[in-house]
Amino acid sequence: MAEAKTVASLVRPAETVLGRARRRRSPTLFAGIGILSVIIIVAVGAPLFTSYSPVTPHPLQGLLPPSGQHLLGTDQLGRDVWTRLIYGARIDLEVGFLAVLFPFIVGTAIGCLAGYFGGVTDSIVMRAVDVILAFPFFVLVIAIVFVIGPGTKSIYIAMTVTDWVSYTWIIRGEILAAKRHEYILAARALGYSRRRIIGRHLLPNVITQAIVYSMSDIVFTILTIVTLGYLGLGVPPPTPEWGSMISDGQTFITTNWQLATIPGLAVVITGIGLSLLGDGLADLLRPE
Amino acid sequence: MTDRPLLSIQDLSVEIVTRRGTVHAIDGVSFDVAEGETLGLVGESGCGKSMTLRAILGLLPRGGRVTRGQILFRGTDLLSVDKAQLRDMRGRSISIIFQEPMTALNPVMQVGEQIAEGPIAHLGYPKKAARERALDLMRRVGIPDPARRFSAYPHELSGGLRQRVMIAIALACEPQLILCDEPTTALDVTIQDQILKLLLELQDSSHIGLIFVTHDLAVISQVCRTVAVMYAAQIVETGSVESVFAEPRHPYTLGLLRAVPDFDKVKDMLDSIPGIPPDLVSPPAGCRFRERCVFAQQDCEVGDFPLLSVGDDRASACIHWTQCRDSALTDPVISIGQSSDPGKASKAGSQAGI
C-alpha cells in the first residue's frame, strides 16, 4: 500500500492545456487571447456598446466629425462609424472563421487519405493541389465569387475550393512522417481498422500544425473578405463590413480620413491578435 | 485441446524488394508453437527474427512478400485468408508486444484508452464496459492505482509501467498467441525480471502461446522451453533450452554462448564471433555460417544445409555438429540461467519498485 502511494505521487496528473499554458507563461498566447476576446466581446455584444443602427441612413447627419455623440463620426449616409465598425466585426469574424473551417475540414480529410494511402491516391491529390496552387489565388477567388454572385455563400465556396490545398499539403506531409512511427505499426498489428488508425491514432498527432496554420489563415481570409468587399464582391450593402467601409471611405480620405483608416486599423489589430494566438498555440501544442 | 499445434510455420520464405536488390529476409523457416508453450527465437540483428513476426501478422514492410510456405494458425493458413479476416485476427487471436513501449504507444492518447481500444474495436464493447475492462487488465498486469493511471499519457509513466501497459493492450482481447518482439530489451534488468515474471504468470493462468524474439540468451533461458536459433534468415538449430544451451550442436549457437560474458571467469577480452553475417541480397552458397566458422571444411561450401535431427527432439543445420558438441563438452560454455537464483532476482525486482 505504502509503495503504491509513493509510486502514485511520482506520476503527474494529466495536465490541462490551460494549466500548461500557465506554467509556460506564454505572453504571446495570453496577449492574443486578450486582444481577440475584447474584439469578440464587443462584436457579440454590439447592441450593448451603441445605441445606433448600423444600417439606417440619416441623410442630414452625413460626414460628421468625431464627437461625444458619434465617437468616430458618421459616414456619408449619416450612419455611426463606431456602430458599423462593431457590427462589421461580427460579419468579418464569422465569415473569416467559417471560410477557414470548411477548407480546414475538407483539406485535412483529403490530406489524411493522401498521406496514409500514398500511391495513386496521393499522386492524384497532389496533382490537383498543384493545379490549384498554379492559379493566382485572388484571380481564382474573384472568378468563383463573380460566377456565383457576391455574398457570404460564394465566399465560403470560393475559399473552400482554393484554400483546402494548404491543409492537404500540411496534413499529408505530417501523416507521411507520422505513419512511420512504431505506434502506427502497433495499431495495425492490433488489427484496428484503417478508419480508426487514421482518425484516432494519426489525426490527433498531426492536427496541431493545421490548427496553428489556421490561425494565420483566418487573418489571411479576413484580408481576402475585406479585399472582396473593397472590390464590391463581398457582403452586399448595406450590411456593415470592414472591406466595404474602407472602399466607401476612401473617397473622403482628404476630408474625413477616419472613415477608411479606422476599419483598416480594425483589420490590423484583429490580424495581430490572431497571429499572436497562432504563435502562442504553436508553442503550447509543441510536444515536450 | 487438439494435437495440432497452435501455430505451425512451414518452410516460410520472405523476400523484400529494395533498391539494393531483393533481400531474402526469411529463407525456409519452420517451427511449431503449442498452446501454452513458449518458443524462443534468438539471433543477432537483421537475421530475420522480427521479420518472421511481421510475416505472421501479415504486416511485411513495403516491397515484402511471402514467396513460399505456410503459416497455419489453428489449422488456418494465414497467408490465404482475406485481408479483413486477417485484420480481425490481429489483436484478437494473435497479439504483439513491442520492444520499445515509448514509441509503440501513441503519445497523444491516454494509456487507459489505448488498452480499452481493443475491446471496443474487436469485441464491440460499449465505452463504459471497455473502461472497466481496461481497469481490470491494468490490475492484472500489476499497474498500481489503475483508476488514476487510466488517464495518464505514455510520457508520464516509467519504462516498466509503459511495458505493462503494452502487455495489457496485448492481452485485452484474450488472444491465444502473443508475439513478443524483444519486450524487455529497452528495460533495465530489475524491471526486465519483473516483466518476464509477469509474462510467465499470465501465460500460466491463460494458457497463451508465446513467441519470444530476443538476442538475450539469459532471457530465453528464463522464459522458454524450446529455442530456435536463427542465423542469416534461416533457423540453424532447435531444441529444448537446457540441452541447446548446455551442449550446442551448431557452431553459431556455440559462438553465441561463448560470447556471453561470464562473471566467474574474468578475461581481458570478451569472446566474439569473428566476421559479419552474410549479405542477404546475395547469400553465399553452402553453409551461411561457413566463413565465420572454426569447424568449416570443404564440404561446407556447396549444397543446402537443412535442419537435420541430431537426437532427442533436437535439430541442427550443421553437418559437423559432432565436432561442435565435442568442443562444447571439452570447454563447457557457461550455464546461463542456472546460476541465477530466481527467488533472489524477484526480491531485487520488487524492492526496486516500478
Description:
The complex is a heterodimer of chains A (288) and B (354). Chain A is an all-alpha fold and 288 residues long. Chain A has a single domain, classed as MetI-like (MetI-like fold), CATH 1.10.3720.10. Helix content of chain A is 74%, strand content 0%. Chain A is elongated and about 75 Å long. Chain B is of the alpha/beta class and 354 residues long. Chain B has one domain: Rossmann fold (3-Layer(aba) Sandwich), CATH 3.40.50.300. Chain B is built from 13 helices and twelve strands. The longest helix of chain B is centred in the middle third of the chain and has 18 residues. The two termini of chain B are 37 Å apart. The C terminus of chain B is likely disordered. The chains are: A mainly alpha (288), B alpha/beta (354).
Structure, briefly:
Chain A is an all-alpha fold and 288 residues long. Chain A has twelve helices and no strands.
Low-confidence stretches of chain B: 337-354
> What is the residue-mean pLDDT of chain A, rounded to a whole number?
86
Share of residues in helices of chain A: over 70%
* Number of discrete helical segments of chain B: 13
Could you state the order of secondary-structure elements of chain A as H and E? HHHHHHHHHHHH
Task: Give me the strand/helix succession of chain B.
Answer: EEEHEEHEHHHHHEHEHEEHHEEHH
Net shape of chain A: elongated
Please give the count of helices of chain A. Answer: 12
Assembly category:
heterodimer
The CATH class of chain A, by name, is Mainly Alpha
Helix content of chain B: 25-40%
Work out the strand percent of chain A. Answer: under 5%
Look up the CATH topology of chain B: Rossmann fold
Largest sheet entry of chain A:
none
Q: Strand share of the residues of chain B? A: 15-25%
